[in-house]
Design goal:
Layout lengths: L5 H19 L7 H13 L7 H37 L6 E2 L5 E6 L11 E10 L4 E4 H4 L3 E4 L5 H7 L7 E6 L20 E10 L1
Antiparallel strand pairs: 1-2, 2-6, 3-4, 3-5, 3-7, 6-7
Length: 203
């Protein structure tokens, strides 16, 4: 099928936008033909081919399935992170604090350590436990500045252990990172995270 007129092109574009939205919030078993039928009936002002009560019940069932799948995925992520951290804690050079934060010293600096009220300048790589980088000031080529008290708990604790020039590798349990919610689409819920952090200066 070709789309030659302006109206056809825009109509196709509207359909693409709706399809992209559906793909981003889909569920197993979605039936595109049924979606098209519902769209056509609504646009034409036709009565619903499925009674309202049945629609409500079906939506509730799918919502429950999605919630259960999300919960299972979150539990798996939490277990995977805990297993990684338990094994990592046994490695030589890895230190574990009372909170559960793990770190190893890659380079030792000198001078005063920052406090909660300070702002710091850092370079960092943020990674998942499999090594995939999700954020990096090094790759952007520009250090980041932020208050010690304005970052995730694992960072706040670690920064106060560091002198300027110190570089640590942090292994952060989800409880000290983004927790049960994650961070937008970038970091899933219950993710243990790994950071290489270099404290450049207290500003």
């Amino acid at each position: 099928m070709t789309f030659d007129s302006v109206e056809q092109k825009v109509s196709y574009g509207v359909g693409r936008q709706m399809g992209e939205q559906l793909a981003g919030n889909s569920f197993d078993g979605v039936d595109i033909a049924a979606v098209q039928a519902g769209l056509a009936d609504a646009f034409a002002g036709q009565p619903s081919a499925v009674p309202g009560a049945e629609l409500q019940e079906a939506f509730a069932i799918i919502s429950q399935r999605l919630a259960e799948a999300q919960e299972a995925k979150a539990k798996a992520a939490a277990a995977e992170g805990e297993a990684f951290l338990a094994e990592n804690a046994q490695r030589e050079g890895v230190q574990v604090t009372a909170s559960g934060l793990q770190y190893e010293v890659l380079a030792q600096g000198e001078g005063d350590k920052p406090g909660l009220q300070d702002t710091v300048r850092c370079h960092y790589h943020g990674m998942f436990t499999d090594g995939r980088v999700f954020d990096s000031s090094v790759e952007r080529g520009e250090p980041a500045e932020f208050p010690v008290s304005g970052v995730i708990a694992g960072w706040t604790e670690a920064l106060q252990l560091m002198n300027p020039g110190t570089k640590l590798k942090l292994y952060i349990p989800h409880q000290l990172a983004y927790g049960e919610r994650g961070a937008g689409g970038a970091i899933p819920p219950f993710s243990a995270l790994v950071f290489e952090v270099e404290l450049l200066a207290i500003v």
